[in-house]
Amino acid sequence: MNELKLKKSARTRRFIIKKVAPIFNKKGYSGTSMHDITEATGLTKGGIYGNFENKDEIASAAFEYNSKHILDQIRACALSQKTAKNKLFAITEFYRRFLYEPELSGGCPLLNTAAEADDMHPVLRAQVLASIDYIRRSFIYIINEGIQKGAFHKNIDPEFYATVFLGLIEGGIMQMKIYNKAKFLTDCLLQMERLVGGLAK
């Protein structure tokens, strides 16, 4: 395959991913049909399978697209602040904005995909784990930064708080979806902010 064909193939793959990523995020792996994919892209099944081996590969690429978007936004929010405390507050504010100005149709791709990423989909499960672990490690990094700079108490356990923060965020999103009430997430974010305040000297 020459360079021109490679470039065209890459463009087509990106086009397909961009079109179907919101569908996978909203309907899930099982709920997204080949008809959904062909309808969204305007391509035939042959056109789709000429660029992707199977539905698993499409779902994997769609999750990568969706999760990268969210993780990039979280990273940007944290980097916009100078202190560890404000970095953590910026992340909670991102999720608070997410309620009213969702970055992606269908909500949080990490939570959505985690519900389906069982042993039947090992590649997708590994991707979800990597994305969630990225957020958890980011919390650990920020908390350690606060400790090293003397802004947070030195005897706190960064891994413990990172686990709790992640649980509050994803648990709040889950309850919000189940009950269809934003208050469940906002209450969890408020509790996280209270805990962050308690870390400071």
Task: Walk me through the structure.
The structure is a single chain. The chain is mainly α. Helices cover 78% and strands 0% of the residues. The protein is elongated and about 60 Å long.
Features of this protein?
201 residues; 9 helices
Write the layout of secondary structure elements.
Elements: H1 3-31, H2 34-41, H3 45-49, H4 55-79, H5 84-100, H6 109-114, H7 122-148, H8 158-179, H9 183-199
Summary of the model, kept short:
The chain is mainly α and 201 residues long.
Arithmetic mean pLDDT: 92
Weakly predicted, low-confidence segments: none
Distance between the termini: 61 Å
Sheet/helix structural class: mainly alpha
Tally the helices: 9
Bin the helical content: over 70%
Shape: elongated
Task: From the alpha carbons, calculate the radius of gyration and give it in angstroms.
Answer: 19 Å
Strand content: under 5%
* Main β-sheet description: none
Q: Tell me how many strands there are.
A: 0
Succession of helices and strands: HHHHHHHHH
